[in-house]
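Let's practice the habit of predicting before peeking. Look at the sequence and jot down your guess about where helices and strands might fall. Then scroll down.
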Amino acid sequence: MRPTGLVTAFLVLIAGVGQAADYRYDTSYSVSLGVLPIARMTFETEVSGGRYTISGRFHSSSLIDIVREVSADSSVSGRMTGGVMRPERYVLGYKSGKRKHVYEVLFSEGNVVETRVTPERPKPKSWVPVPVPAADLRAVFDPIGALLIPGDADVCQQTLPVYDGESRMDLVLSPNRSERFSAGKAKGDAIVCSVRYVPKSGYRKGRKDIEYLKSVTGMEIWFAKTATLKLYAPVYAKIPTRYGTVHVTAEKFDG
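Done guessing? Here is the structure:
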């Protein structure tokens, strides 16, 4: 799957945004396929005057670059309202080899009001459906903000509606267990949620990786509460794929 699909929703893992005062935070994650390192991700989060901006960078490892270099720059900006992130603009620039696409999504009050894709991607007849229905674009999250959960929420009793500029999916969380985690200097307890992937629209029917993810078991996200912001954010994710299990591990966390 391209990084703007399910894997993005897991890979774009961030530490959060500030509330009472201006705030800046840098973080990073390692990504591996089994024991093979395949990518690194870095993020910068800034808040000023009630507005937030989160910028991220994804780059495949040197081993993967031998086959095809993959990189992505992502950002989301919006306002904090009552401690809740309200996205206004999400952008993803994705490069795979010589191919490059830019996805831009504009939001208003949690609803998608415009999507721009450059260059336009041709849609096969098996695409489900074209365009994404208006009902699927109401009350949705961008892939970056989707995995931040308020500190007073029941973390694993969540269905996260995500739109990435092309595909609309639900990530259905359910309680699993608790685990100890370590991320740089941060250590503590994490809440482990099982995850079920439910594609809604904006994808090719019969695509093998999507059909696999619809039926696979064993997907997990580990959430821990940030010390500064008191929000739940991911510290680890496990994503079974047709090629092996992808592990996303926080190397630095505000815990």
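How did you do? Confidence is low (pLDDT under 50) at residues 1-6, 11-21.
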